[in-house]
């Protein structure tokens, strides 16, 4: 059994801040192979215990969501994303999107 690496906390919270919520498998695919090995259930449980994320089982997989407290913690650590900058691909913007709506 591995202990988790606390340096993963801001990495995990940064991914969640970017996307809002992720399934555990999606979160793992966004991590490097080295980070995946170091990601332990204890890390997610500790983040939940600290009120930085919520974990809810939907279907057969945990879905992890960042809380406002988690966003605040991440901002204090200097790794936050502003709410005004959506994750890549999350916006329908672009020069053609307005002309298509007319």
Largest sheet geometry: 3 strands, antiparallel
CATH architecture: Orthogonal Bundle
Strand order of the largest sheet: 1-3-2
Q: What would CATH call the homologous superfamily?
A: Winged helix-like DNA-binding domain superfamily/Winged helix DNA-binding domain
User: Could you say how many structural domains there are in total?
Assistant: 1
Content of β-strand: 5-15%
Helix content: 40-55%
The run of helices and strands is: HEHHHEEHH
Radius of gyration based on Cα positions: 16 Å
- The helix-and-strand class reads alpha+beta
Q: Poorly predicted ranges (pLDDT <50, ≥5 residues)?
A: 82-102
Task: Determine the mean pLDDT.
Answer: 79
What does this structure look like?
Strand 2 (53-58) and strand 3 form a beta hairpin. A three-stranded antiparallel β-sheet has the order 1-3-2. The chain has helices at 8-19, 24-30, 33-38, 41-49, 68-77, 95-101, and strands at residues 21-23, 53-58, 61-66. It contains six helices and three strands, in the order H-E-H-H-H-E-E-H-H. The protein is globular, with a radius of gyration of 16 Å. The protein is of the alpha+beta class and 102 residues long. The chain starts with 7 loop residues before the first helix and ends with a helix. It has a single domain, classed as Winged helix-like DNA-binding domain superfamily/Winged helix DNA-binding domain (Arc Repressor Mutant, subunit A), CATH 1.10.10.10.
């Amino acid at each position: 059994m591995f202990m988790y690496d606390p340096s993963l906390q801001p990495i995990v919270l940064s991914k969640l801040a970017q996307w809002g919520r992720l399934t555990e498998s999606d979160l793992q695919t966004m991590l490097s192979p080295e980070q995946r090995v170091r990601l332990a259930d204890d890390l997610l449980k500790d983040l939940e215990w600290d009120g930085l994320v919520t974990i809810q089982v939907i279907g057969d997989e945990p879905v992890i969501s960042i809380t406002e407290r988690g966003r605040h913690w991440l901002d204090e650590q200097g790794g936050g994303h502003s709410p005004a900058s959506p994750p890549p691909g999350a916006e329908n913007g672009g020069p053609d999107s307005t002309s298509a709506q007319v």
